[in-house]
């Protein structure tokens, strides 16, 4: 599903060049439930953003679902993100003026799905994540955990090949975070979506079926667990 080969990425901060990733190699198979773990500044979020095509590496190649990202135009990258990748952001990134159902349906709107089908699919997936009676509520009327569930529903409603989640439990209490991870594990199992997290939350690491530790821009450990 993902193949990163000799990935390097640097950023300029003031007068200093910071090497965020140093010759990283990583292969992720379809259906994995994987966490990129490490302290702040380790490079895990940079790697997640590169896999999602939100940024491009300085060197090396990344293939997602068989497509080499460096060969795509900006429009091609946008199309790949729209059709093959679901994103779950730490800050939820819901549109405040839209209802939960409208937020979930927004990606399908961009994909050109008709209004009736969008509504039906949005309500169905909200029911799957335990929010079947909250489709007409706006984000301000939902708790943090409920908003993140809407974000999960939005990410998976169109059946993406891969879901990328950046610190998905960072703004949640432990009980809500545990429930969210259990939900995403179920979606991984039942829908076959590949999940990749960036995290420094031990609870996320404990749920991961594969744990990749990153430190100072390098992978220092890669452990698969029996599930």
From TrEMBL:
CDD domains: ABC_MJ0796_LolCDE_FtsE
SMART domains recorded: AAA (SM00382)
All copies of domain ABC transporter, residue ranges: 2-227
Pfam families: ABC_tran (PF00005)
Gene Ontology cellular component terms for the protein in this record: membrane protein complex; plasma membrane
PANTHER family xref list: IMPORT ATP-BINDING PROTEIN (PTHR24220), TRANSPORTER, PUTATIVE-RELATED (PTHR24220:SF659)
Designated name of the protein: ABC transporter ATP-binding protein
Organism expressing this protein natively: Desulfosarcina alkanivorans
UniProt lineage: Bacteria, Pseudomonadati, Thermodesulfobacteriota, Desulfobacteria, Desulfobacterales
């Amino acid at each position: 599903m993902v193949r990163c080969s000799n990935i390097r990425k640097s950023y300029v901060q003031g007068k200093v060049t910071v090497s965020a990733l140093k010759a990283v190699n990583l292969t992720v198979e379809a259906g994995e439930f994987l966490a990129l773990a490490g302290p702040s500044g380790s490079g895990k979020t940079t790697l997640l953003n590169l896999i999602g095509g939100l940024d491009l590496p300085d060197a090396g190649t990344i293939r997602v679902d068989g497509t080499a990202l460096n060969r795509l135009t900006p429009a091609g990258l946008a199309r790949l993100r729209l059709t093959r990748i679901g994103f779950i952001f730490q800050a939820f990134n819901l549109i405040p003026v839209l209802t939960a159902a409208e937020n979930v349906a927004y990606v399908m709107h961009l994909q050109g799905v008709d209004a009736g089908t969008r509504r039906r699919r949005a309500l169905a997936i909200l029911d799957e994540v335990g929010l079947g009676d909250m489709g007409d509520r706006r984000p301000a009327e939902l708790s943090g955990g409920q908003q993140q569930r809407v974000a999960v529903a939005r990410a998976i409603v169109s059946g993406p090949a891969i879901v990328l989640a950046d610190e998905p439990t960072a703004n949640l209490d432990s009980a809500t975070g545990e429930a969210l991870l259990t939900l995403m594990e179920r979606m991984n199992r039942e829908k076959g979506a590949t999940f990749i997290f960036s995290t420094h939350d031990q609870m996320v690491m404990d749920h991961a079926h594969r744990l990749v530790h990153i430190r100072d821009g390098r992978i220092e450990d890669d452990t698969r667990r029996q599930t």
